[in-house]
Amino acid sequence: MINRTADQEAAAWFWANDNDGTYKPPGQLLQATREIATARGLNTYENARLFALVSIAMADAGIAVRDVKFLTPIDLWRPVSAIRDGGLDPEWKPLLKNPSGVNVTPCFPAWASGHATFGAAWAGIMKRYFGSDGIAFDMTTDEPRSPVKSRHFTSFSAAAREDAYSRVWLGVHFPWDAEDGLTLGDKIANHVFTTKLRTL
User: Fold this and answer.
1) In a domain, 69, yes or no
2) Domain of 167, in residue numbers
3) Residue 58 burial by Cβ neighbours in a 10 Å radius (0-12, 13-18, 19+)
4) In 25, 60, 160, 164, which residue has its Cα 20 to 30 A from 13's Cα atom?
5) Gene3D superfamilies annotated for this entry (predicted)?
6) Residue 58's closest CA among 122, 145, 129?
7) What is the chain's alpha carbon radius of gyration, rounded to the nearest angstrom?
8) For residue 177, is it within any domain?
């Protein structure tokens, strides 16, 4: 049901970080923040402000995406339910697996994507903070099933978009979950950046 390229499958696992023992979306993004801040030589104050903004935005993203999932009339099923119960393929399974190798899907509504929301909130702060979206950087993963441990990005938005669509390629989200999560996350970033930790 999902046609993936080899690179899309690699990206799906690179961003997975779903299981205990992995640093999951916020931790992976904070790790990237640290590496980017170090590479750009931020001083102590600049570093503290950047991490505070990123952390506030991702905390707000976690609240907002759970509100969307649980406090709206939209209770969207996951692809596995749509494909199986919709009669398209009763044996279909998502790519995502637990450490025992069993195919799994998250046990809460699909809309909107948490990965997409976290990624866009992070990218939104990063591009506003540095005054540019076109900053190249590498990111790492500690997901044991990922065939690659590092990926290169040419912009913060590119990383957020790949994070969002990795969930589609993993078979646990629909494209609109990803797009709406990206929109939600960037709105959160804009609010946080324009209202929090402003220069006195």
Assistant:
1) yes
2) 6-195
3) buried
4) 60
5) 1.10.606.20
6) 122
7) 17
8) yes
